[in-house]
Protein backbone atom coordinates (compact mmCIF):
# COMPACT_ATOMS: atom_id res chain seq x y z
CA UNK A 1 0.00 0.00 0.00
CA UNK A 2 2.79 2.40 1.06
CA UNK A 3 4.75 1.65 -2.13
CA UNK A 4 1.69 2.23 -4.30
CA UNK A 5 0.97 5.55 -2.60
CA UNK A 6 4.62 6.54 -2.89
CA UNK A 7 4.59 5.58 -6.60
CA UNK A 8 1.54 7.79 -7.14
CA UNK A 9 2.82 10.76 -5.16
CA UNK A 10 6.35 10.57 -6.46
CA UNK A 11 7.05 8.00 -9.20
CA UNK A 12 10.59 6.57 -9.37
CA UNK A 13 12.76 7.59 -12.31
CA UNK A 14 15.28 5.66 -14.45
CA UNK A 15 18.01 7.49 -16.37
CA UNK A 16 20.30 6.36 -19.18
CA UNK A 17 22.89 9.11 -18.67
CA UNK A 18 24.67 8.80 -22.00
CA UNK A 19 27.61 10.49 -23.67
CA UNK A 20 25.49 11.20 -26.76
CA UNK A 21 21.88 10.96 -25.50
CA UNK A 22 20.12 11.06 -22.15
CA UNK A 23 16.85 9.16 -21.74
CA UNK A 24 14.56 9.36 -18.74
CA UNK A 25 11.94 6.73 -17.90
CA UNK A 26 9.22 7.28 -15.29
CA UNK A 27 7.66 4.46 -13.25
CA UNK A 28 4.47 3.35 -14.94
CA UNK A 29 4.93 5.64 -17.96
CA UNK A 30 8.07 4.36 -19.77
CA UNK A 31 10.54 6.60 -21.60
CA UNK A 32 9.36 10.23 -21.44
CA UNK A 33 12.55 12.17 -22.28
CA UNK A 34 14.95 11.29 -25.10
CA UNK A 35 17.33 14.14 -25.88
CA UNK A 36 20.97 14.74 -26.81
CA UNK A 37 23.35 15.28 -23.86
CA UNK A 38 24.21 18.85 -24.82
CA UNK A 39 23.99 22.19 -22.98
CA UNK A 40 24.21 25.70 -24.54
CA UNK A 41 25.98 28.40 -22.52
CA UNK A 42 26.67 32.08 -22.54
CA UNK A 43 30.39 32.23 -23.24
CA UNK A 44 32.47 33.19 -20.22
CA UNK A 45 29.64 33.08 -17.66
CA UNK A 46 28.82 29.32 -17.68
CA UNK A 47 25.15 30.35 -17.48
CA UNK A 48 22.83 27.96 -19.35
CA UNK A 49 20.93 29.96 -21.96
CA UNK A 50 17.15 30.42 -21.91
CA UNK A 51 17.06 30.44 -18.06
CA UNK A 52 18.41 26.89 -17.93
CA UNK A 53 16.30 25.51 -20.80
CA UNK A 54 18.84 25.53 -23.69
CA UNK A 55 19.50 21.84 -23.12
CA UNK A 56 19.08 18.75 -25.30
CA UNK A 57 17.65 19.09 -28.84
CA UNK A 58 17.75 22.87 -28.83
CA UNK A 59 21.36 22.97 -27.66
CA UNK A 60 22.45 20.25 -30.11
CA UNK A 61 21.40 22.35 -33.08
CA UNK A 62 23.91 24.93 -31.84
CA UNK A 63 26.88 22.48 -31.56
CA UNK A 64 29.69 23.63 -33.86
CA UNK A 65 27.57 26.49 -35.26
CA UNK A 66 27.43 28.94 -32.37
CA UNK A 67 28.22 32.64 -32.65
CA UNK A 68 31.07 33.93 -30.48
CA UNK A 69 28.80 34.76 -27.53
CA UNK A 70 27.37 31.22 -27.22
CA UNK A 71 28.99 27.85 -26.72
CA UNK A 72 27.35 24.41 -26.88
CA UNK A 73 29.05 21.64 -24.90
CA UNK A 74 28.61 18.00 -24.02
CA UNK A 75 29.09 17.47 -20.26
CA UNK A 76 29.92 13.76 -20.74
CA UNK A 77 32.79 12.04 -22.53
CA UNK A 78 33.60 8.34 -22.77
CA UNK A 79 30.58 7.51 -20.61
CA UNK A 80 31.63 9.69 -17.66
CA UNK A 81 30.97 13.21 -16.43
CA UNK A 82 33.64 15.65 -17.58
CA UNK A 83 31.81 18.81 -16.53
CA UNK A 84 30.17 18.30 -13.19
CA UNK A 85 28.32 21.63 -13.01
CA UNK A 86 26.85 21.36 -16.51
CA UNK A 87 25.84 17.75 -16.02
CA UNK A 88 23.91 18.87 -12.95
CA UNK A 89 22.14 21.62 -14.96
CA UNK A 90 21.32 19.14 -17.70
CA UNK A 91 19.94 16.56 -15.26
CA UNK A 92 17.90 19.21 -13.43
CA UNK A 93 16.26 20.24 -16.69
CA UNK A 94 15.51 16.65 -17.77
CA UNK A 95 14.23 15.64 -14.33
CA UNK A 96 11.88 18.63 -14.22
CA UNK A 97 10.66 17.83 -17.72
CA UNK A 98 10.01 14.18 -16.85
CA UNK A 99 8.84 14.22 -13.30
CA UNK A 100 5.61 15.37 -11.74
CA UNK A 101 6.61 14.79 -8.09
CA UNK A 102 3.95 16.26 -5.84
CA UNK A 103 4.20 17.97 -2.47
CA UNK A 104 7.95 18.51 -2.86
CA UNK A 105 8.90 14.78 -2.75
CA UNK A 106 12.18 13.89 -4.48
CA UNK A 107 12.06 10.81 -6.73
CA UNK A 108 14.24 7.75 -6.23
CA UNK A 109 16.45 7.51 -9.29
CA UNK A 110 18.14 4.53 -10.96
CA UNK A 111 21.01 5.59 -13.24
CA UNK A 112 22.75 3.33 -15.78
CA UNK A 113 26.53 3.82 -15.82
CA UNK A 114 29.37 2.10 -17.74
CA UNK A 115 30.89 -0.94 -15.99
CA UNK A 116 34.37 0.57 -15.91
CA UNK A 117 33.73 3.81 -14.02
CA UNK A 118 35.95 4.57 -11.03
CA UNK A 119 34.72 5.28 -7.48
CA UNK A 120 35.46 8.99 -8.04
CA UNK A 121 33.44 9.01 -11.27
CA UNK A 122 30.58 7.21 -9.45
CA UNK A 123 30.64 9.86 -6.73
CA UNK A 124 30.30 12.51 -9.44
CA UNK A 125 27.16 10.76 -10.74
CA UNK A 126 25.63 10.52 -7.24
CA UNK A 127 26.34 14.18 -6.43
CA UNK A 128 25.19 15.53 -9.81
CA UNK A 129 21.89 13.63 -9.55
CA UNK A 130 21.27 14.65 -5.94
CA UNK A 131 22.03 18.31 -6.58
CA UNK A 132 19.77 18.16 -9.65
CA UNK A 133 16.78 17.13 -7.50
CA UNK A 134 16.98 13.34 -7.09
CA UNK A 135 16.20 11.64 -3.77
CA UNK A 136 17.92 8.29 -3.14
CA UNK A 137 20.15 7.37 -6.11
CA UNK A 138 20.92 3.81 -7.26
CA UNK A 139 23.41 2.79 -9.97
CA UNK A 140 23.02 -0.11 -12.38
CA UNK A 141 25.65 -1.29 -14.84
CA UNK A 142 24.75 -0.22 -18.37
CA UNK A 143 25.25 -3.74 -19.75
CA UNK A 144 22.86 -5.18 -17.14
CA UNK A 145 20.22 -2.54 -17.92
CA UNK A 146 20.72 -3.33 -21.62
CA UNK A 147 20.26 -7.08 -20.99
CA UNK A 148 17.07 -6.44 -18.99
CA UNK A 149 15.77 -3.92 -21.57
CA UNK A 150 16.43 -6.37 -24.42
CA UNK A 151 14.39 -9.01 -22.57
CA UNK A 152 17.30 -11.45 -22.17
CA UNK A 153 16.69 -14.29 -19.71
CA UNK A 154 19.50 -12.99 -17.48
CA UNK A 155 18.29 -14.74 -14.32
CA UNK A 156 18.10 -18.19 -15.95
CA UNK A 157 20.85 -20.80 -15.41
CA UNK A 158 21.86 -20.20 -19.02
CA UNK A 159 24.41 -17.79 -20.48
CA UNK A 160 23.16 -14.73 -22.38
CA UNK A 161 25.31 -11.96 -23.80
CA UNK A 162 24.87 -8.29 -24.61
CA UNK A 163 27.09 -5.74 -26.39
CA UNK A 164 25.92 -2.14 -25.84
CA UNK A 165 27.62 0.28 -28.25
CA UNK A 166 26.89 3.87 -27.19
CA UNK A 167 28.55 7.17 -28.03
CA UNK A 168 31.47 6.95 -25.61
CA UNK A 169 31.69 3.36 -24.42
CA UNK A 170 30.99 -0.19 -25.49
CA UNK A 171 29.84 -2.38 -22.59
CA UNK A 172 29.97 -6.13 -23.13
CA UNK A 173 28.71 -8.67 -20.58
CA UNK A 174 27.70 -12.31 -20.20
CA UNK A 175 24.99 -13.08 -17.63
CA UNK A 176 23.89 -16.21 -15.84
CA UNK A 177 21.59 -16.61 -12.81
CA UNK A 178 21.11 -12.84 -12.59
CA UNK A 179 24.82 -12.08 -12.24
CA UNK A 180 27.39 -10.68 -14.66
CA UNK A 181 29.83 -13.58 -15.04
CA UNK A 182 32.24 -11.91 -17.45
CA UNK A 183 32.35 -8.31 -18.67
CA UNK A 184 34.51 -5.60 -20.17
CA UNK A 185 34.06 -1.95 -21.12
CA UNK A 186 36.10 -0.19 -23.80
CA UNK A 187 36.07 3.54 -24.42
CA UNK A 188 35.57 2.91 -28.13
CA UNK A 189 32.07 3.46 -29.57
CA UNK A 190 30.15 5.88 -31.83
CA UNK A 191 32.30 8.95 -31.07
CA UNK A 192 35.47 7.04 -31.92
CA UNK A 193 33.88 5.95 -35.22
CA UNK A 194 33.13 9.63 -36.00
CA UNK A 195 36.76 10.56 -35.20
CA UNK A 196 37.94 7.75 -37.52
CA UNK A 197 35.85 9.25 -40.37
CA UNK A 198 37.30 12.74 -39.66
CA UNK A 199 40.83 11.30 -39.74
CA UNK A 200 40.19 9.32 -42.96
CA UNK A 201 38.96 12.43 -44.80
CA UNK A 202 41.94 14.44 -43.56
CA UNK A 203 44.41 11.79 -44.70
CA UNK A 204 42.85 10.64 -47.96
CA UNK A 205 40.92 13.72 -49.15
CA UNK A 206 42.92 16.57 -47.51
CA UNK A 207 39.56 17.72 -46.15
CA UNK A 208 38.90 18.90 -42.61
CA UNK A 209 35.35 18.14 -41.44
CA UNK A 210 33.64 18.50 -38.05
CA UNK A 211 32.38 15.63 -35.87
CA UNK A 212 28.72 16.41 -36.73
CA UNK A 213 29.40 15.96 -40.44
CA UNK A 214 31.36 12.75 -39.71
CA UNK A 215 28.45 11.35 -37.68
CA UNK A 216 26.05 12.24 -40.50
CA UNK A 217 28.24 10.38 -43.03
CA UNK A 218 28.52 7.36 -40.70
CA UNK A 219 24.73 7.19 -40.31
CA UNK A 220 24.00 7.88 -43.99
CA UNK A 221 26.43 5.44 -45.65
CA UNK A 222 28.42 3.73 -42.88
CA UNK A 223 28.62 -0.05 -42.75
CA UNK A 224 30.60 -2.84 -41.16
CA UNK A 225 30.10 -5.45 -43.88
CA UNK A 226 29.97 -5.25 -47.71
CA UNK A 227 26.59 -3.95 -48.88
CA UNK A 228 24.45 -5.35 -51.65
CA UNK A 229 24.23 -1.84 -53.09
CA UNK A 230 27.20 0.27 -52.08
CA UNK A 231 26.40 3.97 -51.49
CA UNK A 232 28.05 7.39 -51.56
CA UNK A 233 27.64 10.63 -49.59
CA UNK A 234 28.60 14.21 -50.17
CA UNK A 235 30.81 15.80 -47.53
CA UNK A 236 31.60 19.46 -47.01
CA UNK A 237 34.65 20.77 -45.22
CA UNK A 238 37.78 22.85 -45.45
CA UNK A 239 40.56 21.97 -47.88
CA UNK A 240 43.64 21.52 -45.67
CA UNK A 241 45.99 22.76 -48.43
CA UNK A 242 44.14 25.73 -49.96
CA UNK A 243 42.11 26.55 -46.79
CA UNK A 244 38.94 27.11 -48.83
CA UNK A 245 35.61 25.28 -48.35
CA UNK A 246 35.18 22.31 -50.67
CA UNK A 247 32.84 19.34 -51.30
CA UNK A 248 33.85 15.72 -51.89
CA UNK A 249 32.11 12.37 -52.39
CA UNK A 250 32.96 9.50 -50.08
CA UNK A 251 31.81 5.95 -50.80
CA UNK A 252 30.47 3.39 -48.33
CA UNK A 253 33.56 1.21 -49.04
CA UNK A 254 35.78 4.10 -47.92
CA UNK A 255 33.72 4.74 -44.78
CA UNK A 256 33.93 0.99 -43.99
CA UNK A 257 37.71 1.18 -44.32
CA UNK A 258 37.73 4.19 -41.94
CA UNK A 259 35.62 2.30 -39.36
CA UNK A 260 37.77 -0.84 -39.43
CA UNK A 261 39.96 0.08 -36.44
CA UNK A 262 37.21 0.99 -33.92
CA UNK A 263 35.13 -2.03 -35.03
CA UNK A 264 38.11 -4.35 -34.50
CA UNK A 265 38.52 -2.96 -30.96
CA UNK A 266 34.82 -3.65 -30.22
CA UNK A 267 35.00 -7.20 -31.61
CA UNK A 268 38.21 -7.89 -29.64
CA UNK A 269 36.40 -6.77 -26.49
CA UNK A 270 33.61 -9.30 -27.20
CA UNK A 271 36.19 -12.05 -27.83
CA UNK A 272 37.94 -11.28 -24.52
CA UNK A 273 34.63 -11.49 -22.62
CA UNK A 274 33.76 -14.86 -24.23
CA UNK A 275 37.27 -16.24 -23.59
CA UNK A 276 36.92 -15.55 -19.86
CA UNK A 277 33.71 -17.64 -19.59
CA UNK A 278 33.57 -21.27 -18.40
CA UNK A 279 33.27 -23.80 -21.27
CA UNK A 280 29.64 -24.61 -20.27
CA UNK A 281 28.67 -20.98 -20.63
CA UNK A 282 30.50 -20.71 -23.96
CA UNK A 283 28.52 -23.75 -25.14
CA UNK A 284 25.27 -21.92 -24.17
CA UNK A 285 26.39 -18.82 -26.12
CA UNK A 286 26.76 -20.91 -29.26
CA UNK A 287 22.95 -21.27 -29.06
CA UNK A 288 21.76 -18.10 -27.33
CA UNK A 289 24.21 -15.78 -29.08
CA UNK A 290 24.75 -12.07 -28.61
CA UNK A 291 22.30 -9.16 -28.65
CA UNK A 292 23.51 -5.75 -29.88
CA UNK A 293 22.08 -2.62 -28.21
CA UNK A 294 22.89 1.13 -28.18
CA UNK A 295 23.00 3.46 -31.18
CA UNK A 296 26.10 1.73 -32.60
CA UNK A 297 24.01 -1.42 -33.12
CA UNK A 298 22.29 0.44 -35.98
CA UNK A 299 25.46 0.45 -38.10
CA UNK A 300 24.62 -1.48 -41.26
CA UNK A 301 25.96 -5.04 -41.37
CA UNK A 302 27.47 -4.97 -37.87
CA UNK A 303 25.50 -8.10 -36.91
CA UNK A 304 26.84 -9.91 -39.99
CA UNK A 305 30.45 -8.92 -39.26
CA UNK A 306 30.15 -10.00 -35.63
CA UNK A 307 28.49 -13.30 -36.56
CA UNK A 308 31.39 -14.02 -38.90
CA UNK A 309 34.11 -12.95 -36.43
CA UNK A 310 32.67 -14.43 -33.22
CA UNK A 311 31.06 -17.58 -34.64
CA UNK A 312 27.85 -17.18 -32.57
CA UNK A 313 24.35 -15.94 -33.52
CA UNK A 314 24.10 -12.13 -33.37
CA UNK A 315 20.88 -10.14 -33.26
CA UNK A 316 20.11 -6.41 -33.08
CA UNK A 317 17.69 -5.51 -30.25
CA UNK A 318 14.39 -3.82 -31.14
CA UNK A 319 14.80 -0.05 -30.89
CA UNK A 320 18.44 -0.32 -29.66
CA UNK A 321 18.73 3.40 -28.76
CA UNK A 322 16.17 3.01 -25.96
CA UNK A 323 17.12 -0.47 -24.65
CA UNK A 324 19.12 0.74 -21.62
CA UNK A 325 16.43 3.25 -20.60
CA UNK A 326 13.74 0.58 -20.94
CA UNK A 327 15.95 -1.66 -18.76
CA UNK A 328 16.03 0.99 -16.04
CA UNK A 329 12.22 1.25 -16.32
CA UNK A 330 11.90 -2.52 -15.68
CA UNK A 331 14.26 -2.06 -12.74
CA UNK A 332 11.92 0.57 -11.25
CA UNK A 333 9.07 -1.96 -11.27
CA UNK A 334 11.21 -4.28 -9.09
CA UNK A 335 13.05 -1.66 -7.06
CA UNK A 336 11.85 -3.00 -3.70
CA UNK A 337 13.24 -6.51 -4.46
CA UNK A 338 16.37 -5.44 -6.33
CA UNK A 339 17.46 -2.37 -4.34
CA UNK A 340 19.95 -4.35 -2.19
CA UNK A 341 21.74 -5.54 -5.35
CA UNK A 342 22.14 -2.01 -6.70
CA UNK A 343 24.90 0.31 -5.60
CA UNK A 344 23.42 3.29 -3.77
CA UNK A 345 24.62 6.58 -2.34
CA UNK A 346 23.81 5.38 1.17
CA UNK A 347 26.23 2.40 0.86
N1 LIG B 1 22.03 4.51 -37.77
C1 LIG B 1 23.15 4.58 -37.06
N2 LIG B 1 24.30 4.01 -37.51
C2 LIG B 1 25.43 4.09 -36.79
N3 LIG B 1 25.54 4.72 -35.59
C3 LIG B 1 24.44 5.32 -35.11
C4 LIG B 1 23.20 5.29 -35.79
N4 LIG B 1 22.27 5.98 -35.07
C5 LIG B 1 22.93 6.43 -33.96
N5 LIG B 1 24.22 6.04 -33.98
C6 LIG B 1 25.28 6.35 -33.01
O1 LIG B 1 24.92 5.89 -31.74
C7 LIG B 1 25.61 6.68 -30.76
C8 LIG B 1 24.66 7.06 -29.65
O2 LIG B 1 24.16 5.90 -29.08
P1 LIG B 1 23.51 5.89 -27.62
O3 LIG B 1 22.47 6.95 -27.52
O4 LIG B 1 23.13 4.49 -27.32
O5 LIG B 1 24.79 6.33 -26.77
P2 LIG B 1 24.87 6.90 -25.29
O6 LIG B 1 24.01 6.05 -24.39
O7 LIG B 1 24.59 8.34 -25.28
O8 LIG B 1 26.42 6.68 -24.99
P3 LIG B 1 27.20 5.92 -23.82
O9 LIG B 1 26.39 4.68 -23.51
O10 LIG B 1 28.53 5.60 -24.39
O11 LIG B 1 27.29 6.89 -22.69
C9 LIG B 1 26.16 7.91 -31.47
O12 LIG B 1 27.56 7.77 -31.64
C10 LIG B 1 25.45 7.85 -32.83
O13 LIG B 1 26.24 8.39 -33.86
Structure overview:
- There is one protein chain.
- The protein is built from 13 helices and 19 strands.
- The chain has 347 residues and is an alpha+beta fold.
- It folds into 4 domains: 129 residues, ATPase, nucleotide binding domain (Nucleotidyltransferase, domain 5, 2-Layer Sandwich); 36 residues, no CATH class; 90 residues, Nucleotidyltransferase, domain 5, CATH 3.30.420.40; 69 residues, ATPase, substrate binding domain, subdomain 4 (Actin, Chain A, domain 4), CATH 3.90.640.
- The strands form 5 sheets. Strands 3-2-1-9-10-19 form a 6-stranded mixed sheet, with helices on both faces. A 5-stranded mixed sheet has the order 13-12-11-17-18, sandwiched between helices.
- Strand 11 and strand 12 form a beta hairpin.
- The radius of gyration is 21 Å and the shape is flat.
- The chain binds adenosine-5'-triphosphate.
- The site of adenosine-5'-triphosphate has 24 residues, from helix 7 and helix 8.
Amino acid sequence: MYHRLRGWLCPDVGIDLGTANTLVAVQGEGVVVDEPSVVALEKGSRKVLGKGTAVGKLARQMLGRTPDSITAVRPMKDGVITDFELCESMLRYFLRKAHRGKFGFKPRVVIAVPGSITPVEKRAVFSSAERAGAGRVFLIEESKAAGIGAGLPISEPLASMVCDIGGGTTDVAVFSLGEIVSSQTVRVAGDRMDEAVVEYLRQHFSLRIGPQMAEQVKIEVGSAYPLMNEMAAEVRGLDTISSIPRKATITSEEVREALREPLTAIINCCKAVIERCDPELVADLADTGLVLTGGGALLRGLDELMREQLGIPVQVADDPLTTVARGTAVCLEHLEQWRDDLESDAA
